[in-house]
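Handout, section 4.2: multi-component inputs.
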Amino acid sequence: MIETGAPSIFIIPTAHGWNFLRSAERNGSWGVRMLRSLDEAVPLLTATDDFVLALPVAAVLAHRFRLPTVDPAEFPEMIRIQIEKALPFPSDEVTTDFEVIEQTESASVISAVAVRNEQLAEIAAPLLARGYIPRQVTVYAAQRATTYAPQGSALLIYPEGETLVSAVTENGKVSLTRTLEVDGQRLQMELPELALSAELHGINASFPNVLLDESCYQLRDTVQGILASPTEIVGVELPPAPVKLNLLPETWRQRRSQLARQVEWRKRLIWAGAVYAGLLFLLVAYFAYMRLTIGYLDRRIAQDAPETEFVRAAEANWKALAPAVDSHYYPVEILLHLFESLPSAEVRITAYNQSARQISVEGEANTAALAYQFIDKVKKAPELRIFQFNMAAPRILPNDHAQFRLEGRPR
Amino acid sequence: MMPAWYERMNQRERLLSWIVAGAVIVLVNLVILSWLFGALGRARIELAARKAALAEQAVYVKERDLWTKRDEWLREHQPTLKNPAEASVLLDQLKQVAGKYNVLIQNPAIGSGETTPNHQTVFASIETKSPWPPLVHFLYDVQKPDAFVVFESVNLAIDSSDPTMMRGKFKIARWFAPAQRAK
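Output:
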């Protein structure tokens, strides 16, 4: 939907309906598909396709104006006034665009093309219904003229639908259009009338280039006989030359921008979703990795378990028998280290109790501070580290001495 | 292109449907993320526990020789309970040591103690009265690693009537090899 570079799809009117031209992988070759109606183009398009819709001559009104200015800034307003005079519709019901055919020092010759919005909407209804809005709406005659006769005046004759159309062009711009009868005798009358009209509009009617579509080959001699000019046979343009003429209505342009923004947002959402899904995938992969690692460690633990089972049992047995075999639990050892921890002779142990797994020491110190010094030293004694000692706040006796009780449990 | 049911909705209905759809998506994702992060947290804890277990096993394997020697030592040195008179033998040994240091033994008693998977117990309860230095010698001589003697209960206090004397109450046990191993 974003206009980047040349379009890759053209939809152009033909005798049988429409031609759908698509660049084949952008390698220079083009595929052509014949469509009876634009409905058949819908399945061939996608929301991101960038395409040009060329209108048949019958759908547009082409006018040639001579404006008394060469200032491009004045063109739009002057052309609007001219179009309003020339068209039987209000200006807000049509979409117009113009191209400069030629300029002199004081004047400009302009090719102005208008299309009724309602008619344009009818033509493009199948595409609009699916949200496919063309990048450019132009006139097929302008594309053909730009392709085959970019300089000088030319007369294009080709079929559109069931009719034959003629377009007089100057420097690749459409100046005058007419619908012709396919009948040779009628052509004998209509072509001279077209040349006369062209002369009346100030167009050189000698037509050095007469371009006849290949499907009208049988009319070549007739046309040559009438116009007394060499007639060149032309085929389908692959692709048509780019033209500036754009009849895309403003509402379509806005809708196209809106759709483009929607596509952008959809892309962003898809990216965000993809990033989120990627993160989720990484988390799940990390989880799977951790489960696999846990499984691997479980197997290793199970593998080593018989070897360590004996060690565990031996350790448990040794610890259970520690009061008998480990001298750290012997009362005489504990008492020795407790006495070594006494900070001074002013701290005295008055009672000692021990069970297989717990000891308690009662004593008296001249001050509470000495009692706290004692517990500090007991806690720091490396030989008593197998016990965890606690002491409640000492009780102050009437003589200001501190009575304390120390309790120790194996760690 | 939008589906027909969406096209049929007006602007308010579309807004509401987007809000509902967004809320559902957010809730579903919250449930998924909550489960995923919960599972990851649990897996991390399990992994740490397994690593700790493996490290512990590595230490055990490394210390295997030490524990083998200790186990062998216990098998060789832990006495086996041969008859109920072992408690009496223990008391006799205590009396002998006490006599050596002039520690007075009072109220002796003997009995069988608890049986655990690690040991069978016989004990002797005694009360002592002596100065502090002989008592220390008594305690030192009674207990040696290969004797498997345990002071299951010790109560020491200064004699209230004579501060130079110590009064002690002891429950002294010998831990024999468990019956299963003895067989």
